[in-house]
Amino acid sequence: HLRSPPDPSTAPATELVVALYGSFFAERSLEAADALAAASGLPLRLVTVRPTPADIPSAESYLARVARRAPRVRDLTVEVGSDVATSLAAAAADGALIVMATHARRAVGEVLFGSVADEVLRAADRPVLLVGPNAGVPDPTFVTIVLPEDGGPGGRRLRPHAQAWSEQLAAAA
């Protein structure tokens, strides 16, 4: 069915910030972000974090290469910092939705390897869309939005965000 293009001025976010760190795995989140950008009318911004200013030129080159695969990319940002999660959260302006990959490791894996995604969830004061290792490109029509609900406070806090995205995308929640 045909629907009118979404109005970015009423969107539940101002932009989609895609967190990248140089791996194919992280770049898979760009596919989901690009589909959401197309459906919502929002721009994409690619962000990476590097430990020193000397890393900025190679990081900018990397982001430029990745940006060629997503026509909705409007900006590239290289943050310099030793705390990746805090730097990513800070790079996302007010109103941005952070999109990033997660390895979805079990508890033992997180203890051994850590979880940047978990750290970003704790550091960010805004919604974060995690793209799991088995996620594919979403249906570009976003007919249905599924919100996992366990009855806890987290699910209740997410309901208004899910409802706003559902309305923006003309999807069933």
Description:
- This protein is 40% helix and 17% strand.
- It is an alpha/beta fold and 173 residues long.
- The protein has a 5-stranded parallel sheet, sandwiched between helices.
- Strand 2, helix 2 and strand 3 form a beta-alpha-beta unit.
- The longest helix is centred in the N-terminal third of the chain and has 17 residues.
- It is globular.
Share in helix: 25-40%
Count of alpha/pi helices: 6
Task: Give the tally of β-strands.
Answer: 5
Given as residue ranges, the uncertain stretches (5+ residues, pLDDT < 50) are: 107-114
In whole angstroms, the N-to-C terminal distance is 18 Å
Q: What summary fits the major beta sheet?
A: 5 strands, parallel
Mean pLDDT: 79
Rg is 16 Å
Structural class: alpha/beta
Biggest sheet: strands side by side, in what order?
Answer: 3-2-1-4-5
- Report strand %: 15-25%
Outline, from the CA principal axes? globular
What's the SSE blueprint?
Layout: E1 15-19, H1 24-40, E2 44-50, H2 56-67, E3 73-80, H3 84-91, E4 96-101, H4 107-113, H5 116-123, E5 128-131, H6 153-169
Parallel strand pairs: 1-2, 1-4, 2-3, 4-5
Helix pairs in contact: 3-5
Summary of the model, kept short:
The chain is an alpha/beta fold and 173 residues long. The chain has helices at residues 24-40, 56-67, 84-91, 107-113, 116-123, 153-169, and strands spanning 15-19, 44-50, 73-80, 96-101, 128-131. A 5-stranded parallel sheet has the order 3-2-1-4-5, with helices on both faces.
Question: Descriptors for this entry?
Answer:
173 residues; alpha/beta; 5-stranded parallel β-sheet; 6 helices; 5 strands; 17% strand; globular
